[in-house]
Structures are given as structure tokens and as C-alpha cells.
UniProtKB/TrEMBL annotation:
Membrane-traversing stretches: none
One term of GO molecular function: phosphatase activity
Superkingdom of origin: Bacteria
Name of the protein: Putative phosphomutase (TIGR03848 family)
Binding sites annotated in the UniProt record for substrate: 8-15, 59, 85-88
Catalytic residues in the record: 9, 85
Recorded GO CC terms: cytoplasm
Amino acid sequence: MATVILVRHGRTTANATGILAGRAEGVSLDQVGQDQAAQSADRLASVPLASVVTSPLERCQQTSQYILDRQTEALAPLIEADLTECDYGQWQGRPLSELATEALWPVVQSQPSAVVFPGGEAMAAMQARAVAAMRRHDAAIEAQHGPGAVWVAVSHGDIIKSILADAFGMHLDLFQRINVGPASISIVNYGASRPSVLATNTEAGDLSWLAGGLKSADAPVGGGAGNTSNDVTPQTT
């Protein structure tokens, strides 16, 4: 299958002030977030991308534009509603420090599969629609560009964590063990038999080893010799 690079949007004004932005309008990258997005775009500049798919929210579209601007070939972003932020309902727009006192907070931390945000979305439904969107786009991109295609999905922290949990074969209740920082890069190859997670939450490192695409294969017994396309190996933090 094709290989997807998951990029979280850069830091926003809401992130900086500890507000749960959710799907609120007018939440944009602050200067730190712009610098983070530019750095991620620089890392991806050496990788010819088949497609850039993004959440419709402003912060993700801003981040995706940095990536598109550093590509040699002109691409138009694809807006995917199912990669949008979780609908936090009545939690949206409130300070995280205040939300931490809610009775639902420890459930979000330890049993997210049981969480339905008041007036909002179930976290299990969030994961289901995000993973379905990833699989759908991955199959379409491979069909159009071949199994060596590399594409980018720009989304949000909880969305990407839920996608990675699915790729790892982890129950959603364990997804809080995964960290996804602003503008971080994670990499998944949806192989014929199972997904392969190549990197998570990286903020630095050369990605030119992805330029030629990856071939899906069985997992090597003993771990194998790593990436052999050149001397640069993936970095996982």
C-alpha cells in the first residue's frame, strides 16, 4: 500500500493559552506554530508527495499550505471532513485546567472508549471515522499513483493518536500513551496484511529515505537491517 505521513498542525493561539479549541472558528497558528509548520515542510521538501489531505479547520489548512509551498510539483489540498477535530461539545472553548476538575476527565484519561462528550462526539466514533478516512484515501492514492506513493494527512492531536493506536493494534483505551506534538511527523504504511508504524512524533531528522517510496513486505525476523534506500534511517521519538 501507499505510505502516509501524519502531520499534526503547528501550535495555535489556543494551545498556547491552554484552551480546548475543538472546532471553534478563528483558531490559527501563532508565530511558534508557523515556525513549526515551516520546519516540518522543510523536512518534507525532499519527498515527492502524491497528495496532501487536510482537516478543514484553519490551523490544519495553514499547516498544509506550508507543506504544499515546499513541494516541487504543484498540488491542491484535499479537504477531508472526517479528519476534523473531535466534537468536544460543551467542553469546547473551556480552559484545560477547568476541564481537569470535571468528573468525565479521568474517564477521558483511562477509558476513552466509554467517553461521549456532553453535547458532542463519542471518542470511539471519532476514531472510527478518522481511520475509515485514512484507509479510503490510502487505497485511492495507491490506485492512482502506485504502491510507492507517499502522501500527507494533516490533522489534530487526538485524531492522529487514534489513527496511530489503530495502526499499532492498540485498544482505544490505551491511546493516551501516545504523544503527538504540534507539527510532529508520524509515518504509517498500510501493508497488505497489517499496518506498519515507521515513526511517531518526530520533530527533526531527514526524510529523504521516503523519496522513492516503500515496498510492503513481511516483517523481518530479528528486526532486519533497517531502511536500505540510503544511509538515512527513520527517527522515532
